[in-house]
Design a protein that fits this description.
alpha/beta, 10 strands
Length: 364
């Protein structure tokens, strides 16, 4: 499973790295709504949530389906501005039908990444949108009714909400992180210019790779989707937006007809590197077998040879070897030679990370 972005024939100048105040506000609002996703931001989320005035907190809850489970596309501008006001001005210029589709796409649509009728004009799609919103509770159902009935007023309401967030907490937050994000974007752009796209993607995230043969970018995610950076006119290109609030999420905007956007967390020494989804699955499969689980218990206590493991568990040496091979391919064992003996031991650090690697893969 992966999300792919076709870049065949895309001019290098159409690959842009740029921070976005609106995207960062969306990431901050997501962290406030789902603090369990972001334990490293505990101090910030706790202090910010406690300081919110009740009226602002209520309004944020009213629209939180735009950023709680994931981020709505309206919060990922493909051409970021230098200030939140600039990003909001460009959001105001978005055609009404496009705004409504994007606002309702994440939680009120049957599937993401597939063109569908617009709920403003298609009765069936409008009924389906209302049905899905109602399943998520009366608050979201009421907000969706407002979006369908009067999009301009909802857009104005959202702009005031985001402006109030800037005044209440985000203005100070943005001043604190914007220099770091701008520096990261400049560094990635310089790597792109000097060493090429493959090297630049490697600095963005280990979950991003370049398939040079097929001329596409591949995002290693528990999702399947595809889009192209070869959109008509000004929508051609791809934008990489850094975030200080994003880890462990790597968001890829791949809605039909939109310029692709990759919202990536800025790396830091304390953040673990994401593991490939295939490796996470291989490790979970490896330890799920009852015989291998028992072998792991023995190997966690010290080094053992294949013969010792066979005697301890009452199975044949060839059977032990087969299970050892599976654990080694999953990167869960260390092996060293002592004379004519080969000693195996469980890699405790890799096993300890299984839970966090699995969670990161789910949230990526």
């Amino acid at each position: 499973m992966s999300v792919t972005i076709d870049i065949a024939g895309l001019p290098p100048e159409r690959i842009v790295f740029s921070p976005s105040p609106l995207a960062e506000l969306g990431a901050a609002l997501h962290a406030l709504s789902e603090p369990a996703h972001h334990p490293g931001l505990h101090n910030w989320t706790t202090a910010t949530a406690c300081a919110l005035k009740p009226d602002l907190a209520d309004r944020l809850q009213e629209a939180d389906f735009l950023w709680r489970t994931t981020r709505s596309d309206i919060l990922l501008p493909p051409d970021p501005g230098a200030t939140l006001a600039e990003d909001l001005d460009r959001l105001d210029q978005m055609p009404e039908e496009e705004f409504v589709t994007a606002a309702l796409e994440i939680s009120c649509a049957a599937s993401y990444g597939r063109a569908r009728p617009n709920p403003l004009h298609d009765p069936y799609e409008r009924d389906r949108t209302r049905e899905r919103a109602a399943a998520r509770g009366p608050c979201q159902a009421a907000f969706v009714e407002r979006v369908l009935a009067d999009p301009p007023s909802v857009r104005a309401w959202l702009r005031r909400l985001f402006e109030d967030c800037e005044q209440a907490f985000f203005g100070d937050t943005w001043q604190r992180v914007r220099v770091q994000l701008a520096a990261d974007a400049r560094h990635k752009a310089e790597v792109l210019r000097r060493k090429g796209l493959a090297e630049a993607l490697a600095t963005v995230s280990p979950a991003l790779t370049l398939d040079a043969e097929r001329q596409r970018i591949v995002a290693d995610k528990l999702a399947t989707g595809q889009t192209t950076a070869l959109q008509p006119g000004e929508r051609a290109g791809i934008t990489f937006v850094p975030t200080a609030f994003g880890w462990p999420h790597l968001l890829v905007l791949h809605a039909p007809g939109w310029k692709p956007v990759v919202h990536y967390p800025v790396g830091s020494p304390e953040l673990p590197r994401p593991q490939a989804l295939e490796l996470v699955q291989r490790r979970l499969d490896a330890v799920s077998h009852p015989v291998r689980m028992n072998l792991c218990r023995t190997l966690s206590r010290g080094t053992h040879t294949t013969g010792e493991l066979a005697n301890a568990h009452g199975i044949t040496a060839p059977e032990v070897s087969r299970h050892i091979s599976v654990l080694k391919k999953a990167g869960l064992l260390t092996t060293r030679r002592r004379g004519r003996y080969v000693l195996h031991q469980l890699d405790l650090a890799s096993v300890a990370r299984l839970g966090s690697d699995f969670l990161e893969a789910l949230l990526r």
